[in-house]
Amino acid sequence: MFKPRFDIRAQPGFGFIALFTFFALYLPIGALVAYSFNGAESLSHWDGFSLRWFEAAWQNSAVQDAAIRSLIIAVWAATLATMAATMAALATTRTEPYRGLTFKYALINQPIMVPEIVTAVALLIVFSRIKVWTGYSGLGYLIAAHTAFCIPFAYLPIRARLESMDLTLERAAADLYATPWMAFRHVTFPLLRPALIAGFMLAFVISLDDVVITEFVKSGGQDTLPTYMLGQLRRETTPEINAIATVFLALSTALVIIVFIVNRRKQQ
Amino acid sequence: MKTAPENARSRDIKNRWLLSLPALLIIFIAAAGPLLVMLLYSFMAKGDYGDVKFGEFSSEGWFSVFFQRDMFDDTFGLATAHLSIIWRSIQLSFFTTLLTVILGFPTAYFIATRPPSSREIWVFLVTIPFWTNLLIRTFAMQQVIRNEGLLNNALIWLGVISSPLQIMYTDTANLLGMTYVYLPLMVLPLYASIEKLDFRLVEAGYDLYANRFQVLRRIVIPLVMPGIIAGSILVFIPSLGAYVIPRVLGGGKNMMLGNLIEMQFGSGRNWPLGAAMSITLMALVMIALIFYVRNASRSGAGHV
User: Fold this and answer.
1) Which pTM value belongs to this model?
2) Cβ pair A2:B207 closer than 8 A
């Protein structure tokens, strides 16, 4: 029998392009981090290693406020989105198709089907009018908007988990006279927990990252960290923006690594 | 009279509606509903300081997406400024998709042909930039292509050029930025489809004396076509609506449709026009999606 003496999977040049891609993916991020340790007044030249811009960012009250606001919104949005998505996932899985099921899928996934800028201006139209009518201009609008576009992301892992879940245990609980609530509390919920954590984390990161919708929905003085950075990028930038971006980057990478490790442990 | 199981089923469905109500309500209030309001706005007369004149219907908004009145002789002409920006968005999104395929396909192929134990790590390395804030990645790209950035410094140091290349605030900057930001969206679905590739078919190709290029063109690429199409749609759609990248890297002269829409709601104070443009953008996305569904079903059917 003819045996190829070469690796049939190999394609010439692919490895080179792949390594170039990985290099290109990390080079800009590396440059951003490196320049955050720049001691110079501006980004135009390098003036030795320094932590001064991290210190400046830490003491900048606008940055502090924006960071706290980002966290408040993300915690609220991720919590509400996870709760709503869990209920919706329970309502759309483990059932025969029923009238309205497709409608539910379509509506739940709607926020990720439409370009963000379109949702953003649509929210601007509606919320600016509600602001005039009610006089309320707090964080509620941002939390509502973030919750809405976080729901599909939280829904995804929770639905996947519910669909692959073995129903025998719940039936056993019912046979042992557990009420539906007790069965959920003691059987379904513990099995669902990893997916709930993954869904919450996804929603949290998505909310923390949002620029476009926040930029259009926020009232005056309601900058989050990303919209603050966007505002700063209009003028001559100092390495302070790099320092903020570096810390932000470190935090979100840490979150992603945690999710990665949790998922890995679950599989083993 | 309903039978007992029928009653149980309708009760079950009622409960399911109650359970899904919060999610449906939130999305209707803060995402889907506003889109309907926007549709209404696109057919109203523009207000003097933004907003619209309620109850005064007008097709002016839709009209001015495509046409403009000549200031002097009151004749109509094509709205060249708008159309050129729409055309630029389509072109840039197309080339972004092309570049991400050129870089993403070999990358996904490379990952899929690693030993199973190390694949996970390579995929993870693609995922980290994917989960990094879009604005931060755009800003990171700026560090490379700005006049005193990494690229220009390296080229000057190597003696290739003597004065920095102006990349920032050009279409090239937009293209590089979008390719960089959306590349993981191409690699991940491509990897998923290449990983499922049956290499016995590749082996059969070689047995029939195909050379490497023929195997790639006649066997590998057709088989992973669904992945290429899925990746393309995932890259093309957000590129078309890009707002942050052109704003940071493209500057005022190299706007895309997203920035044009923003302008109508900001300094342009023409909300009906902005609303009509948003719906135009959604229509373009729909066209891309329909194209995708058609091609996906065709290429899927070709191999079963």
Assistant:
1) 0.90
2) yes
pLDDT, averaged in runs of 10, over chain B (304 residues): 77 90 96 95 88 83 83 76 92 97 96 91 91 93 90 91 91 96 95 91 88 88 91 93 94 90 92 95 91 73 42
User: So what's the ipTM on this one?
Assistant: 0.89
- Judge: B22–A21 Cβ closer than 8 Å, yes or no: no
Q: Tell whether A139 lies on the interface with B, counting CB pairs under 8 A.
A: no
- Taking the C-alpha atoms of residue A149 and residue A236, their distance in angstroms, rounded to an integer, is 33
Contact A145 B30 (CB under 8 A): yes
Residues 161-220 of A with CB under 8 A from B: 205, 208-209, 211-212, 216
Burial of B235 (0-12, 13-18, 19+ CB in 10 A): buried
Looking at the DSSP bridge assignments, the partners of residue B189 are: none
Q: How far apart are CA A197 and CA A255, in angstroms?
A: 11
Structure tokens at B41: 């706005």
Tell me which residue of B93, B260, B169, B89 sits closest to A233, measured CA to CA. Answer: B169
Task: Kindly determine whether residue B216 and residue A11, on different chains, have CB atoms separated by under 8 Å.
Answer: yes
Do A90 and B15 meet the contact criterion of CB atoms below 8 Å apart?
Answer: no
**Which one of B13, B14, B26 would you mutate to disrupt binding with A, by most A Cβ within 10 Å of its Cβ?**
B26
CB atoms within 10 A of CB A233: 17
Report how far apart, in Å, the C-alpha atoms of A115 and of each of A120, A206, A225, B212 are. Answer: 9, 15, 22, 40
